[in-house]
Prior knowledge:
Blueprint (H helix, E strand, L loop, with lengths): L6 H4 L6 H13 L15 H13 L6 E4 L6 H7 L6 E4 L16 E7 L17 H13 E12 L4 H8 L16 H11 L2 E9 L8 H9 L10 E8 L30 H10 L4 H9 L1
Parallel strand pairs: 1-2, 1-3, 3-4
Antiparallel strand pairs: 4-6, 5-6
Amino acid sequence: MENDPMREIFSTEYFDESIMASVVDAIHSAHAEMGVGGGGDVFDARRIAITIEYIRRHGLSKGLCVEIGSLKYLSSKMIWSCFDAVNLVGTRHDLRHSPMPFPDNFVDNIICTEVIEHISDICYEQATTLSGIFFFLNEAKRVLRKGGRMLITTPNAASLWVLQAALLERSPMMYEWHFREFTVHEMKQIVESIGGLKLVVHNTEFVWHLWNFSHITDFIKQSSFSMSDRGDDQFIVIEKDDSIKAIPHNLNLPRREPLAPSRQRRLSLSSKMLIAKARHRFWPESTIRRMKSY
């Protein structure tokens, strides 16, 4: 990559060659593929390696960690194999409207990788209101302790890859069947509109397409557009801070009508229900004991 004109653009302080090599070895040892849409057996390896470094640098493996989704996925197993003695649980509830099965101010860290773009509306009508995403983020804030952190990764809807896809008359999305992909500006507004959440880091990284985009970058520079935030995946670290006031977004979403009382979900669960759910999910006994004493 010595003479690659894209080398400087692709470089990131969160990439470690040794971690990348370990991830690739683990994929091959498992005789598995981490490809996306035919991208090759190690297509997702760089994203996993960079995710590991974000978790490490921002202290997201300490205390009770909740990963949004199943812990059975190979990507999850590879990420957490790099950390010792993590108190980790997964989830499998409906993120759009089901409360997270934890008491308020209970969780130390939440890991939400490549999930946001899949969350549809609670009740979709003519156009999206992002109601499912807003519900999920409010739930994440509720269960996080003060100072607790959350890592979100999601495709960048303004990446070099997306621009090239549009020029090639393809759907301008990382994966065309995602419910919604977001720009950096949109995700910033969504997070800030919740209130009580501080943006610690918000970067874009080149994790999938390390191609020669010089024809695109030359056009961007010649046209005086910005080259910032053109990576294909967003990495967002947020921290619960009740002093942060909500900032109304200007996303021009359709007006949201309130749910009928019969459809409203309670945002808090009794301790007995929480413990029952925990046992049903085969969570570690240490987590269950902590919930009993809460």
